[in-house]
Structure formats: C-alpha cells, structure tokens
Amino acid sequence: MRAYASYARRLSALRDIPLLLLRLVLAYGYYHPARLKWQDIHGIGDWFGQLHIPMPYVSAYVVAITESAGVVLLTLGLWVRYITLPLMFSMVVAIITVHWANGFEAGDNGFEIPLYYILMLFTLLVYGSGRIGLDALLERSR
C-alpha cells in the first residue's frame, strides 16, 4: 500500500499537465471554426436561419465572439471557468441543430466530437485551469 501512495504522490505532481493539454487542444479545436465564422459571418447567419436558430445573425456573432474568446482565454488559462459555460452551451446547440440527426459517429458528422468538447469543457469547469495559466497567477497575487 505504501508503494501505491508513493506512486500516487508522484503522479499528483503532474496534475496540472492534463488541464493545460485540455485547454490547448480545445483552443486549437475552436480556432479554425471561429476563423471560418469571421470570414463569412453573413453566410453563417444565413445558415443559422436555415437551422431555425433564433436571431440567426445575432447568434452568428455571439458564437463567433464566444469561440474567439475561447481560443484566447483557454490558451492563456484566463477566466477558464467562465468561458467554459458559453462554449458548452454552443456545443449543446450544435448537437441539437446539426449533429444529432447524424447519429454518434464523427465520420458521419454525428455528435461525437461536440460531446467530447462538452466533457473536456466540463472538466475545466470543475477543476479550473490548473496552476499553469494566468488564473493561477492572478490567484497567487491576491
């Protein structure tokens, strides 16, 4: 039992690494969709209208801003718990409006990837950004 405790103690020293990696993978994952939205925000609004999303053009801007803010904040480890909620909400809407009808499989444009994003974001909501990021630096300075 003592060996397990020693092993667990050594592993706990690494506990901030997975949180950092989750943040960076999510930021990278949101970068391209955010950039595409800004390249054709009117087309995104049109598409949102076809999906019957309320206020499609306002929603297009809100999602583009949320995803862009997510890229920056997740990368920096700043206000991570705050940005996870709107990002999770946008993933739920994406699942309902786009992915659900295609089933689970990512290869069929199913809800697999958005579900993984929700789970990763939920992990960051619960555990925070970890000690590698600006949230921890700001907390230490208080």
Query: How many strands, which pairing sense, and closed or not: the largest β-sheet?
Result: none
Number of helices: 7
Q: What is the total tally of β strands?
A: 0
Helix content: over 70%
Shape: globular
* Percentage of β-strand residues: under 5%
Order of helices and strands: HHHHHHH
Tell me the Rg in angstroms.
Answer: 18 Å
Distance between the termini: 39 Å
Which structural class do you get from the secondary structure elements? Answer: mainly alpha
Average pLDDT works out at 95
Uncertain residue segments: none
Question: Could you give a short description of this structure?
Answer:
The chain is mainly α and 142 residues long.
Descriptive notes:
- The chain is mainly alpha-helical.
- The protein has 7 helices and no strands.
- It has helices at 2-12, 16-39, 41-50, 56-76, 80-99, 112-127, 134-141.
- Helix 2 (16-39) runs antiparallel to helix 4 (56-76).
- The longest helix has 24 residues, at 16-39.
- 26% of the residues are buried.
- The model has no long low-confidence stretch (mean pLDDT 95).
How is this fold's topology laid out?
Layout: H1 2-12, H2 16-39, H3 41-50, H4 56-76, H5 80-99, H6 112-127, H7 134-141
Helix pairs in contact: 2-4, 2-6, 3-4, 4-5, 5-6
